[in-house]
Structures are given as C-alpha cells and as structure tokens.
Write a structure and sequence with these properties.
single chain; mainly alpha; Rossmann fold; 3-stranded parallel beta sheet; 6 helices; 3 strands; binds flavin mononucleotide
C-alpha cells in the first residue's frame, strides 16, 4: 500500500497500527520522490529513520530500504533494532551476488544449492 507524503512532507497519522490487525506481517517502508519542490537528503540508509519510527510507533515488523549497499551497515540496522529486515533494490541490480558476498563478509554460513555448487 502507498501512503502519500509520509516523511519528506507533512502527512496525516500513519495507518501502520491498523495494518497489523489486517494480517500485514511486515511493512516495507519506502518513500517516494515525486514532489518536485522537496529536496531529499539521500545517502546510505537515508530512509531507515522512517522504518525505525514506524517500528517503534506501530509495533509492526518493518523492512528498511534506501541506498543500503554495505553488508556491515545492513547488519547494524538489524542488530541495533532499527528494522527487522533490510531490502535492497538498486544495489542488487548492480551486484546480483550481493547476498553471497555479504554473507561471506559477515562470516555467515551460506549454502549454495547443489545444482549450482558443483559449478562454482
Ligand atoms: C527512481 C526511483 C523512484 C522511486 N519512487 C518511489 C515511489 O514513488 N514510492 C516509493 O514508495 N518508493 C519509491 N522508490 C523506492 C523504491 O521503491 C525502493 O524502496 C528503493 O529503490 C529501494 O532502495 P534502494 O534501491 O536504494 O536499495 C523509488 C526508487 C527509485 C530509484
């Protein structure tokens, strides 16, 4: 669902609390960039504060987005309790192997499906 104007410009109360009652398990908190006069301060993790706020106000599990490209940054967002998950968009287009690389960098076990493992 989309909620116009949440974040970069004033908006009404967030309906996030109500969504839990309607079987929504996880909210992907993303903001739009469609208002020409508003300058969005982009940078690594720039939309994370919105996820963090909705998580604390609505008590609903949230996923954070927004120029998350670094494995340690992604890990920190989750371990610090700012979000329950991170989702990557553009970085996965640049590097489709990001998840494997990040798992290796963070020392996590990653299991490559047998069908592919023999080839790698
Ligand atoms: C050009 C562009 C336009 C976008 N427009 C919207 C939008 O209108 N509404 C929205 O919720 N998210 C919008 N997004 C955010 C994406 O839906 C998604 O959350 C984001 O791309 C994921 O973050 P990342 O690509 O920085 O990893 C847009 C992203 C881009 C690159």
């Amino acid at each position: 669902m989309g909620v116009d104007g949440h974040g970069w410009q004033p908006a009404g109360p967030s309906p996030a609390k109500e969504l839990h009652a309607h079987s929504v398990d996880l909210l992907d908190v993303s903001t739009g960039g469609n208002v020409p006069k508003i300058r969005i301060p982009t940078g690594p993790g720039y939309q994370v504060p919105f996820a963090e706020r909705i998580r604390s106000e609505a008590g609903l599990p949230v996923a954070a987005v927004g120029m998350i490209a670094d494995a340690r940054q992604a890990e920190e967002i989750i371990t610090s309790g700012r979000a329950d998950a991170v989702l990557l968009g553009r970085e996965l287009l640049r590097d489709p192997h990001w998840a494997l690389r990040a798992a290796r960098e963070l020392g996590a076990e990653s299991r490559i499906p047998d069908q592919y493992a023999w080839a790698i």
